[in-house]
Design a protein that fits this description.
Pfam families: TIM
Structural class: alpha/beta
CATH architecture: Alpha-Beta Barrel
GO biological process, one term: gluconeogenesis
Shape: globular
Radius of gyration: 17 Å
Order of helices and strands: EHEHEHEHHEHHEHEHEH
Bound molecules: 2-phosphoglycolic acid
Number of helices: 10
Strand order of the largest sheet: 1-2-3-4-5-6-7-8
Distance between the termini: 17 Å
Largest sheet: 8 strands, parallel, barrel
Protein name: Triosephosphate isomerase
CATH superfamily: Aldolase class I
GO molecular function, one term: triose-phosphate isomerase activity
CATH class: Alpha Beta
CATH topology: TIM Barrel
Number of domains: 1
Keywords: Cytoplasm, Gluconeogenesis, Glycolysis, Isomerase
Low-confidence stretches: none
Length: 250
């Protein structure tokens, strides 16, 4: 009943011309009626990638934004700007934003709210660090990130968001969580949302991210609460991304 979503996160890779070329190649990948495909591209490429992909079912997203309509925020990009360029999704609170740019749970909550205010789907990222994982704090960290990150949301808006569980120790390391580890956290997330927002929890898509590749996508997608993937490195090459998009049901 939940439509799978495979999202690429290009991070700070591909110039606008490389991105446009890649978008042309993306047009050749197999489209599955019952799956959503999304590419979250760098700001300068949103417009050209959206133009190339218009008329296809491949969706375009941003990787970040500032939670205000406009204003004196030198160097920042607003929800209105990304939307007008063709983005319908935005990643909020990626661990690289949390760690490198010191984004807090409260600031991320503002981004989630701003995205919804502009009818952009936020992908709220949560995930524990290696240290937190080893200290047995995984569930408490996820709970804190979710409670604060979703604090402005009401019962009706919760259905419009996507959550991505990305254990920080699995991002870009080649070490993915086992399907069972990921499933346990995804189930925990869904239960937490259910406690706070009731039945809406059953329609929310929860993606797994962290070293997703052609070799592990099928077993991850076989888990009951894994509704898709947020893919970094493996989304940069057409061969690996199209294989992930075309995951097999096992
Ligand atoms: P990775 O990145 O697939 O390269 O581990 C995932 C992410 O950061 O979203």
């Amino acid at each position: 009943m939940r439509r799978p979503l495979i999202a690429g996160n290009w991070k700070m890779y591909k110039t606008p011309s490389e991105a446009e070329k890649f978008a042309q190649e993306l047009k050749s990948i197999d489209i599955y009626k019952e799956r959503d495909i999304l590419v979250c591209v760098p700001f300068p490429a949103i417009l050209s990638v959206s133009r190339v992909l218009s008329g296809t079912s491949i969706l375009v997203g941003a990787q970040n934004m500032y939670p205000a309509k406009e204003g004196a925020y030198t160097g920042e990009v607003s929800p209105l700007m990304i939307k007008d360029s063709g983005a319908s999704f935005v990643i909020c609170g990626h661990s690289e934003r949390r760690q490198i740019f010191k984004e807090t749970d409260d600031f991320i909550a503002e981004k989630v709210k701003a995205a919804l205010d502009y009818e952009i789907t936020p992908i709220l990222c949560v995930g524990e660090t290696l240290q937190e994982n080893e200290a047995g704090e995984t569930f408490s960290v996820i709970e804190r990130q979710l409670r604060t990150g979703l604090k402005f949301l009401s019962g009706n808006t919760i259905e419009k968001i996507v959550i991505a569980y990305e254990p920080v120790w699995a991002i870009g390391t080649g070490k993915n969580a086992t399907p069972q580890q990921a499933q346990d956290v995804h189930r925990f997330i869904r239960k937490l949302i259910e406690q706070n927002y009731g039945q809406s929890a059953s329609c929310i898509r929860i993606l797994y991210g962290g070293s997703v590749k052609p070799e592990n996508i099928d077993i991850l997608m076989a888990e009951a609460d894994i509704d898709g993937a947020l893919v970094g490195g493996a989304s940069l090459k057409i061969e690996s991304f199209s294989r992930i998009v075309g995951f097999q049901r096992i």
